[in-house]
Specification:
Length: about 290
């Protein structure tokens, strides 16, 4: 039996894609079938769907990653943050959304074009022990990686954040997201956050409402906090001098969660700010550039 769904104006789609500092709002479209939504590696798309009736859930998938939609608070509108990983293939793909009603499921498909980002190379010289850790340190590093992986695999089924995302510390970016790092002449992983320089002890604010999922001290990233904002969105704050929150605590947007430091592998006081959306490493500034006012 065909699902009975309201017709004809079943669904409209608008898109806010933030890919440059000057344009807070990207192009919008009313006919998804004719539009390819443009984004780039490491970016975040904010999609909104307008539906009629009362679906019990709206869930999408893009490149084997889930795209959970939430009620925006406006009549008939659902929204979702779509993370584009820094290493995502620079190709056009489909985003499939399922709108589930009590008597059936309606499917929609949208096209998303991922452009390559021009990530730069960054060469750094560091003490040998920080680039070639010994066996004891390697064991610790691997355990820390597993712990972070487990935290990021968690999924809180509610959206905990509300208004726009704050930049946690003001200051110059000294280590760009996605930069290809060469430490003491050896290629390393791409930098998965933004390094914002600030003086020692500067308060670090929560970018948005959430729950503290990790407070720990790691070999490379030093003292850190991971916040869970719900629906698979996490933000990370590392190299802190001090932490001001406990695991499990609720935080509000703008709450101080710690202070800027240079704990772990750091050449000077700065905040390493990272963001993760359902398996995608994204530029946290892409979150801060999103506009939710229409
Ligand atoms: Zn960093």
């Amino acid at each position: 039996m065909r699902p009975r769904v309201p017709q004809p104006a079943f669904l409209l789609l608008t898109l806010t894609a933030c890919w440059c500092l000057m344009a807070a709002d990207g192009p919008r479209a009313s006919d998804p079938a004719e539009k390819v939504f443009k984004t780039k590696q490491g970016d975040v798309l904010y999609l909104t769907l307008h539906v009629e009736g009362e679906p019990s859930s709206v869930e999408g998938r893009f490149r084997d990653r889930r795209v959970p939609f939430f009620k925006t608070g406006r009549a008939g509108e659902f929204g979702a943050l779509v993370g584009i990983d820094m290493a995502d293939a620079p190709e056009t793909d489909t985003l499939k959304a399922e709108i589930t009603y009590p008597d059936g499921v309606r499917k929609r498909v949208f096209r998303v074009a991922v452009a390559p980002e021009d990530f730069r190379e960054q060469r750094m010289t560091l003490p040998k022990g920080q680039v070639d850790p010994d066996a004891v340190a390697l064991k610790r590093i691997n355990l820390e990686k597993e712990k972070v992986k487990a935290v990021l695999a968690g999924f809180t089924p509610d959206r905990l954040w509300g208004a726009g995302f704050l930049v946690p510390v003001e200051g110059p970016v000294t280590g760009a997201f996605g930069s290809k790092r060469i430490l003491n002449g050896q290629p390393r992983n791409q930098h998965n956050g933004e390094d914002i320089a600030a003086s020692l002890g500067t308060p670090v604010k929560a970018t948005n409402d959430g729950v503290v999922r990790m407070v720990d001290e790691h070999f490379f990233s030093g003292k850190g906090v991971i916040l869970d904002h719900g629906l698979g969105l996490f933000t990370m704050y590392f190299h802190l001098d001090s932490t001001a929150v406990r695991e499990g605590a609720r935080v509000k947007r703008g709450d101080v969660i710690g202070t800027v430091g240079q704990s772990g592998r750091a050449t000077g006081p700065h905040l390493h700010w990272g963001a993760w959306i359902n398996g995608s490493r994204v530029n946290p500034f892409a979150l801060a550039r999103l506009s939710f006012d229409r």
